[in-house]
């Protein structure tokens, strides 16, 4: 069986149904089972900002085995109904190289998101709804007071999406692998947005 037919059977850490969109479930990445799927996503030119172009499927599996061994970093597949549609990672900025590039505040919580290639063409509003679900999951932990993202500074689409999702742009930073643009979403801003709906 392929990952596409088994990922939806895993226990979810979070589930949300969005009207007119479907049910999104976050399930932990299984490095051995999911490496072929993730490799297919990260090896496309469209995913160049993810930083894994040119890696073999085995290298992708090893990367996610390493992530899986950490208590500060976690990787999930976002499954829409029964189809994996994104790779979502969370991390503690104090335990990540990004923590050396800005003043980490208590309650900061880092996110990475890679949207899978669309199987049937673009779906209007898809990324916005998905980002909303993922930020809602991140804020389920009351200890998380501010979300941190750091897309590649050249990735204008990702930066624009974060701003439209309520993130406030911070400075550009230099990491070993890229020049990144920090952006932050305060819990208060997120909750104000929910109340306004």
From TrEMBL:
The UniProt record lists the keyword Nuclease: no
The entry's keywords: Acyltransferase, Transferase
Pathway stated in the Swiss-Prot or TrEMBL entry: Siderophore biosynthesis; mycobactin biosynthesis
Domain Acyltransferase MbtK/IucB-like conserved: residue ranges: 27-75
GO molecular function term, any single one: acyltransferase activity
Transmembrane segments: none
Keyword hit for Transferase: yes
InterPro entries the record matches: Acyl_CoA_acyltransferase (IPR016181), Acyltransferase_MbtK/IucB-like (IPR019432)
Pfam families: Acetyltransf_8
Domain of life: Bacteria
Known function: Acyltransferase required for the direct transfer of medium- to long-chain fatty acyl moieties from a carrier protein (MbtL) on to the epsilon-amino group of lysine residue in the mycobactin core.
Protein name listed in UniProt: Lysine N-acyltransferase MbtK
Naturally occurring in which organism (per UniProt): Streptomyces kurssanovii
């Amino acid at each position: 069986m392929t990952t596409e037919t088994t990922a939806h059977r895993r226990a979810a850490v979070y589930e949300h149904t969005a009207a007119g969109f479907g049910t999104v479930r976050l399930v932990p990445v299984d490095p051995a089972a999911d490496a072929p799927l993730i490799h297919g996503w990260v090896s496309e030119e469209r995913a160049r900002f993810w930083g894994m172009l040119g890696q073999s499927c085995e290298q992708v599996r090893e990367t996610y085995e390493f992530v899986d061994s950490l208590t500060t970093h976690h990787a999930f597949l976002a499954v829409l109904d029964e189809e994996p549609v994104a790779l979502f990672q969370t991390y503690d900025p104090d335990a990540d190289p990004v923590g050396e590039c800005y003043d980490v505040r208590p309650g900061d919580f880092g996110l990475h998101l890679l949207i899978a290639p669309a199987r049937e063409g673009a779906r209007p509003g898809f990324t916005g709804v998905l980002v909303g679900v993922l930020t809602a999951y991140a804020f389920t932990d009351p200890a998380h007071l501010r979300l941190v993202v750091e897309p590649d500074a050249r990735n204008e689409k990702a930066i624009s999406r974060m701003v439209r999702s309520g993130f406030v742009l911070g400075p550009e930073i230099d990491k070993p692998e890229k020049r990144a643009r920090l952006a932050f979403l305060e819990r208060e801003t997120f909750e104000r947005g929910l109340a306004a709906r």
